[in-house]
DNA sequence: TTCTAAACGAGACGGTACGTCGAGTCTTTAG
DNA sequence: CTAAAGACTCGACGTACCGTCTCGTTTAGAA
């Protein structure tokens, strides 16, 4: 599964790989996306263009791989969300953190680049879902499942849908710059989600709570 | 209201304008977005490149203008949503229609191009919100307000937020191809929105409905 | 002979004609020839492009006409060369004057432009010969004929050839910048021509000089 | 002597260089000079435009280099003129050959293009003198010097001037199309030059002929 | 003096070529 | 035997002019 190159050119290989990723990330974070060219990446990484094309088929792929690696570095362990038992508080915390991430210009540019590449390339989109979106979604769903089991969410709730109702409005506002991204906005989305998917009073009492 | 070009080779001007828009739309709808070049547009429109650059500063602008014009043609009158009095049914209808639009490959490519251009150009994004998104949002909010007045939505509901909860998940699924866009999905979003923003049972009974 | 325009918008016509010529000459004299464009001429002359194209078929023609007009202005009367009776002195004077003309940067650029246009356009070349070169050559030949009759040139000398031997080396040096254009050089050409075409000693004694 | 490019993709480089030169020469020889565009050269050579611009700064330079290369190919050895001992005959031969060259339409266009480029670009003119004109002039002067030593030319004659008197009239007639280029014309130039620069009878008897 | 028709200035138009840039490929040389 | 270096083909970029084509606007002469 690992790279496991027979001889030991591994060192060099890995060094240039990291240099390419770093250069890519810096360029994306720094400036306008049209300045992110393969030539600029190669130059900044101190690498030949062919060393890039040997490994990735297109600029999109490099950018994508660089951002993917970014999140993989951070995630030695799978991402986990806080679980204090207070679903509303935990969700609010996470949503507010997301809002703040989007406010960082570097992060903004990084994600905007990623989104742009993904939007027009179905293969990349699939890889994105597999390697980035899904693990994150699973971590989030885990927290929701815990809440569901604790009767804080409707037993029938589709947890994927809950996540969409929470995050998609945030994402869309950010992408289209169609409104302010504030803590209050984050909370209002948490409120809406909890109203939509919270326990339905009197109708479906949480399992195992029969003896009120 | 009309073009009313004071002086002008108005005929020619308008003809080439339409040709440019048509060519742009065709190219975007037909094929991969990287084939949509200013040269291709000019060639297909039977127009000099300069005629394009004289009017728009960038490819983004032309594409945007072409799609904008598309919607302006359709909208002699402001868009209006069905209002049968049955909010759930009306929303379901509209959401299902949206789902179907996204299923059309031409429309898909059109909107994907628009989204991509907008994502990386704040000025274009502003124009998009002003000229395309807002009128549509207002029409939708009008329908929701009618429902609110009829007590089918909570009186305190932020109608913009309701729209986001309805549409953003749909949009995100489509953009990221992260799940099927089906009628059932549309309905589940309507359900969620109505649970989140429907009248709060027993708390705020709809005005004037005391005598059931 | 004259333009014989049916009606007579002559004043305006003539004004713009002069403006075009002046603008053309200024542009040619000022700067690099590639900056001499029809658009630049029209702009500087305060004239529409069509006013130029209505009268001349190409940039070459305008430039040519402008320079032609320049020499026609000067030449109310046909050009005449000094005839003091001393052929060597007269030729030296004229050749030295030519050398000095070529030293003037404006004149240099003017003639260089003219030469360039003429070299690649046989029709223009014909017009040049007819309207500019021939009258000048005839004036010069007249002076030579006078000398011939005075026995200062061989009676059989081809006067056209004499002029070529005098002027062509000068012209070529100037065109190719292949050597200094000096008064001494002018004189050495006069010497050579006189040696080549002067009276052949003892063979054909000048008429009427029998009694030395 | 060789290009000696430190590193080098020499094979490819040389192949494309030759292709560019061939294409340029063909285009110049074939047709009107305004059809000789960098794009046309690149297309015909099967080469990217950038490969041309990487090596030469302007169309002029390419054309010049192509024609220069043409003459360098021919001249493995330095050019030499016939020396039969009979100066008049040798000059007549060479001048007549020149006249015939100018009669060839391809050669005519080639030289006309070269002349045009050179006339308006002092740097190119310098290179032309250095690399094309001078070697040729030196070969011709060598022949004249031989004649001078044999007493067939005046000992004081400026050989450069002799060449100018011989060739400049020919060149000018050709450039301006101001008269027929014939064998007779060539001979009349030889006659004139020999009269102008031949031994001055009785004044300076040729060296080494003391014992007349 | 008013009317009429040409020529006019202005400048947009369909084009061609410019010279530059970047994508992705290919080749050479150094390590 | 891989990687840096960088030249290569290709094709789009955005600009400059070409020569053509309307547009109103003078303007001079005829009515």
From TrEMBL, chains A, B, C, D:
Q: Indicate the segments forming the HTH tetR-type domain, all copies.
A: 14-74
- Coiled coil regions in record: none
Q: Which UniProt keywords apply?
A: DNA-binding, Transcription, Transcription regulation
The record places the DNA-binding region at 37-56
A Pfam family this chain is assigned to = TetR_C_11
Reply yes or no: does the keyword Acyltransferase apply: no
PROSITE patterns under this entry? Answer: HTH_TETR_2
Asked if DNA repair is a keyword of the record, the answer is no
Q: Name any one GO molecular function.
A: DNA-binding transcription factor activity
- State the protein's name: TetR/AcrR family transcriptional regulator
The protein's organism comes out as Streptomyces pacificus
